[in-house]
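Thread amino acids onto this structure.
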């Protein structure tokens, strides 16, 4: 069906499928390796990953939460979260 505007809602199953998709896991790993080569500090790595994916710097709250997540679960998993942000998936 052709529509002039895409519906921007997404179901929980779609979100989980994308988050856990094998391609997404592999691409997040490569993305994390790319970011890790460019900086040694985790805070800087998360900032760079966020900036590359969304085209803007993270705000303080986003940076704090993503850095804590990366510290606990690894940079690749934080990159997977970034690649699943609505801001990355949809262009307004």
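Threaded sequence (92 positions):
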């Amino acid at each position: 069906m052709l529509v002039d505007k895409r519906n921007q809602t997404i179901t929980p199953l779609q979100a989980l499928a994308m988050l856990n998709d094998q391609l997404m896991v592999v691409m997040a790993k490569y993305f994390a390796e790319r970011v890790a080569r460019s900086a040694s500090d985790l805070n800087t790595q998360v900032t760079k990953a966020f900036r590359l994916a969304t085209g803007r710097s993270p705000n303080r709250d986003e940076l704090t939460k993503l850095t804590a997540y990366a510290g606990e679960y690894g940079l690749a998993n934080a990159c997977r979260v970034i690649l699943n942000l609505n801001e990355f998936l949809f262009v307004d």
